[in-house]
Amino acid sequence: MTAPLSTLHVELGTRRYPILIGDGILSEQLLPLLHESLPQHGRNILVLSNPTVAGHYLNAVLHAFQNHDKAYNVHHMLIPDGESYKSLATYSDVMDVLVKQRFDRDCVIIALGGGVVGDLAGFVAATWQRGVQCLQIPTTLLAQVDSSVGGKTAVNHPGGKNLIGAFHQPAAVLIDTQVLTTLPDRELGAGIAEIIKYGIMADAEFFRWLQQNMQPLLDKDPQALAHAIHTSCAIKARVVAADETEQGQRALLNLGHTFGHAIEAATQYSSWLHGEAVATGMVMAARLSCLRGFIGTTYRDAIIDLIQSAHLPTVPPIAMSIDTWLELMSRDKKVKDGTMRFILPTGPGAAEIFSNVTQAELTRVINESIAQA
Length: 373
Ligand SMILES: NC(=O)c1ccc[n+]([C@@H]2O[C@H](COP(=O)([O-])OP(=O)(O)OC[C@H]3O[C@@H](n4cnc5c(N)ncnc54)[C@H](O)[C@@H]3O)[C@@H](O)[C@H]2O)c1
Ligand SMILES: [Zn+2]
Description:
CATH class of the largest domain: Alpha Beta
Largest sheet: 7 strands, mixed
Strand order of the largest sheet: 1-2-9-6-5-3-4
Low-confidence stretches: none
Number of strands: 11
Bound molecules: nicotinamide-adenine-dinucleotide, zinc ion
Oligomer: single chain
Mean pLDDT: 95
CATH topology of the largest domain: Rossmann fold
């Protein structure tokens, strides 16, 4: 059965924008969404994608513009697939195309891909001629529930991930759950990790729904996906509207990320997917929270069971020494004025930011986590 179309909005005043979610909606909804969210847009469109995604879905995007050749000048550019291409070098290649094609300030950048394409395209849009409009068509589950919404755009520097970037909200987000049919299972799982994050940090009822609906999600049931994506985006939209530039509560979205980023860095961003590292990071956050007495063992174990039911890892690499952990976590972007900050679950559907976690507590949590291997 197909899921009905649903729309959400990120409420940012004059920069308010829609998130459209549906199954098989890409071709038919693209132009209506473009017209509705960007009535004044110009005729130049650049579709950015990579060969993997373009092989499946570029035609559907180009098809939307068919019969409108006079109204539009649609270019597409493919960047190589992979995190290492979310770089200044690729950014510069895209800029060369925009210069060559004489793209103006009314042009629209369309991001067709996962978070790599989305972050790069968003950063291009944020900076080309001091900012042009961007429409996000996320094609990984992670991008659909996380990176396409909220306006964080960036490229990596050899010295660190996402070091060069800008806040630049998209004009609209178009989420077609049907594109997930071709997404590899491991990538699907990485997106489910971020979905579980929303349940833990903000919505106890959603957490219970996930406990009961993990298998349909893993089976890519369109209705289950649509519900999980809608609920996740609604939470993210609410948090972003309240704290666009992460002065406060937007940091709650980083639940599990301080531990997770350390795992990703220690494994050279190669063997663990971001969502997998976050999954284990959330387990560690739950353990820390339990040690501190914020949550009991029953809820801690419910978190671990849910993550396990998504076939996500719950134990960090045993080869990581305590020194490596402490060193990598103190380097994390979440560090403020030299103190590490941890987002910890404090009860069903609730989380808070803590900057007073001691080394002794961290050591205990790391040892307890490794002991589960
Ligand atoms: N801006 C933000 O707020 C934010 C939030 C979270 C993550 N991110 C960023 O997102 C990036 C990770 O994004 P990701 O997890 O989507 O990875 P990704 O973009 O690398 O995509 C993962 C893989 O799936 C392929 N793929 C994408 N869609 C597909 C589809 N429908 N069918 C088959 N294959 C498909 C891609 O080509 C790639 O090989 C990181 O760079 C991270 O920093 C940004
Ligand atoms: Zn994340």
